[in-house]
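Hi, here's the filled form for the chain we discussed.

Project: internal
Contact: R.S.
Residues: 213
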Amino acid sequence: MTFASDSMKLVATSGDGTLSVCNLRTSKVQSQSEFSEDELLSVVIMKNGRKVICGTQNGTLLLYSWGFFKDCSDRFVDLAPNSVDTLLKLDEDRLITGCDNGILSLVGILPNRIIQPIGAHDYPIEDLALSHDNKFLGSTAHDSMLKLWNLEEILEGSNGNSGNASGAAGDSDSDKDGMDLDNDSHKSSKGSKRKTKSKPNTLNSTNNFFADL
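And the returned structure, exactly as it came back:
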């Protein structure tokens, strides 16, 4: 689940493949998507509230336009077939994914692309969190281990390599969609498939973790 504080709405994904928007003022489900082909496991709100991004069990990221929740407006498949178990918003254009193959990736949204791998666990990722200043990323996995990553150092090292990002699914879906009633549907587009692997880049270039949590 994630909370849209400006509109007092709770956005939730479900194992039945639906995305629901609950109005907390009226305590009612305001909108619900059509059934997806796969389970929706994670969700974040991006693009200043105009886009809702969902991670699925088959590794596809589904992009919904706010106010048009019946069907996704775009799909990003480069993380497939690895289940996207958790998503963490870094800013309005980038998010961090945690997949069941243990890989953490920095992903750009509109244009959709894998910017770079961040690190890895030996087991599926369970949760992600940022420090108060966004300089450090914490990740936990099924190995009961917390790893800390120096995001500032990792992102600085990638500034000169932005042209090497994986093929984008395209800018076919504008991030300027209106925030009207749920009365529109969009056609989906698919990108190319690619797997990425990386070695952990943790604080001071060493493995820093807390075991046996």
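Let me know if anything looks off before we file it.
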